[in-house]
Each structure stands twice: as structure tokens, then as C-alpha cells.
Amino acid sequence: MHVLAEDQADLALKFAKDSSAFAQDQWHFDNNHLPILHHAIARFECSIHATFDGGDHTIIVGKVNQFTHNQGKPLMFAGGQFGKFAQ
Fold first, then answer.
1. How does pLDDT run across 22-49, given as a tens digit for each residue?
2. What is the pTM of this model?
3. In this structure, which topology does domain 2-83 adopt according to CATH?
4. DSSP 3-state helix, strand, coil percentages of the chain (rounded to 5)?
5. Where are the domains of the chain?
6. Distance of CA 30 to the CA centre of its chain
């Protein structure tokens, strides 16, 4: 899982609206063949710990195996809109 920076709303929308966006130059595979989004401020590498029936979807609980982070403020999405965290 990646955490995007507050100035990356356009990238988030691009990936949400068009799966072919993953074929572009915004990411690469690391040595473990995991996709790495460029300029994300945090990344969690997880393995599946448990899954639960969520009605019309499956809830996946992950175990964090590795975490990396960079400087920046996180992008927030709530109530159908992008926003910023208050100080």
C-alpha cells in the first residue's frame, strides 16, 4: 500500500479512473517484484493476515512486513473529496 503526498491528487484520480495508468511511467517494480509508485511519501509491504466477508466486497487485513517513508504531507480523501490534514 502507498500513501500519496497532498499534491498528488491528480495521480490518485488517474489510477482510480483508468487501469491503463498503471502501464505508464509513474511506477516500477522493486527487487521483490512489488510495484513502487514514484514519489509516494510512504509504502507498506504487507502479506495477507486474514480476510472477512464484507457483503459486496472482501475485507483484507494485512500484516506489515516492511515500511518505508519520505518527507511530505499525506493526501487525504474523505466524503468524496480530497483534503489536507490540519496542523
1. 666 677 888 878 788 878 899 998 899 9
2. 0.72
3. Pnp Oxidase; Chain A (2.30.110)
4. 15, 45, 40
5. 2-83
6. 16
